[in-house]
Design a protein that fits this description.
alpha/beta, Rossmann fold, Dihydrodipicolinate Reductase, domain 2, six-stranded parallel beta sheet, globular, binds 3-amino-D-alanine, Semialdhyde_DH_dimer_dom, aspartate-semialdehyde dehydrogenase activity, NAD(P)-bd_dom_sf, EC 1.2.1.11, diaminopimelate biosynthesis
Length: 331
């Protein structure tokens, strides 16, 4: 299959190339796409070198699938041009996520919504993806009423500029380029993306709205506080879930352990719980600190961690492509 990766030189694009190779996605020809200034640069993929092309050149090459990680405005402008040629676009930006005519997909949760007619498919926000994978089996069993989530998000979610800011600050370089309005080392910033009129940030609203769309259930109430911390390797989330029905804690652990893509790491007696340093480089969502919220009936607390560049972005995008292949919807 001819596969284009749009934004191939960025943090997520680089990870997409790695994941395509690792998972042996049937790539017969790779089309790495980046901005004009990277044109001609060589990218190594499975031992072969491919030259970076511009997006206009890539559209004319009519790939079967184009994985996009090039920001919202590029996606709004370029994805329809690929789609008009018959290429299926899987887009990692927020451009199409809440468009009612576009599918928003986490394969473990809702791969079944995909059809042959879907030419632009949205990949959800990283912090939403890891949460819904863990919520789905519990919703199916006990029906979720309300979720209260607080996140602890890696600087890699912002991009390379933020990684540089953190690393510079750790070296004592204080006049480097800033990705955030404040220092991030030895700090915590309770703002991810811009504030909305209702006092929530855009990241918080993504978690609220995308969760309902992916789970296909508008009745689930969600409230979120999203926070940037000086960490690389993964996003962590403290999740409080109120169910319609009572649950059995052992059964909750069993359900999560049996969920594809989830690993339960929950052994408080031996101080075993998920941490970003363990999730880094993995595709699974690590879930632990599973316990009853003793302040309220039918309510559970848990902690989940995942590598935001992998399952939160690149891996989920490639898994959508795999789901399309498995269901004979492309290729
Ligand atoms: C972040 N959710 O971590 C974003 C990345 N998509 O900032």
């Amino acid at each position: 299959m001819k596969v284009a990766v749009v934004g191939a030189t960025g943090l997520v694009g680089t990870e997409m190339l790695k994941v395509l190779a690792e998972r042996n996605f049937p790539v017969t020809e790779l089309i790495p796409v980046a901005s004009e200034k990277s044109k001609g640069k060589e990218i190594d993929f499975k031992g072969k070198k491919y030259k970076v092309v511009t997006v206009e050149e890539a559209i004319e090459m009519v790939p079967e699938v184009a994985l996009f990680s090039a920001g919202g405005s590029t996606s709004l402008e370029q994805a329809p041009k690929f789609a008009a040629k018959g290429t299926v676009v899987i887009d990692n930006s927020s451009a199409w996520r809440m468009d009612p005519s576009k599918k928003l997909v986490v394969p473990e949760v809702n791969a079944s919504v995909l059809t042959k007619e879907d030419k632009i498919i949205a990949n959800p926000n990283c912090s939403t993806i890891q949460m819904v994978v863990a919520l789905k089996p519990l919703h199916d069993e006990y029906k979720i009423k309300r979720v209260v989530v607080s996140t602890y998000q890696s600087v890699t979610g912002t991009g390379v500029k933020a990684v540089n800011q953190l690393m510079n600050e750790r070296k004592g370089i204080t006049d480097g380029e800033m990705a955030y309005a404040y220092p991030i080392d030895l700090n915590v910033i309770p703002q991810i993306d811009v504030f909305q009129d209702n006092g929530y940030t855009k990241e918080e609203m993504k978690m609220i709205l995308e969760t309902k769309k992916i789970m296909g259930d508008d009745s689930i109430k969600v409230t979120a506080t999203t926070v940037r911390i000086p960490v690389m390797g993964g996003h962590s989330e403290s999740i409080n879930i109120e169910f319609e029905n009572d649950f059995d804690l052992a059964k909750v652990r069993e359900l999560l352990a049996a969920t594809p893509g989830v690993i339960v790491v929950d052994d408080p007696a031996n101080a075993k719980y998920p941490m970003p340093m363990d999730a880094h480089g993995k595709d699974e969502i690590l879930v632990g600190r599973i316990r009853r919220d003793e302040s309220q009936d039918n309510t559970l607390n848990m902690w989940c961690v995942a590598d935001n560049l992998r399952k939160g972005a690149a891996t989920n995008t490639v898994q959508i492509a795999e789901a399309l292949v498995a269901q004979n919807l492309i290729g």
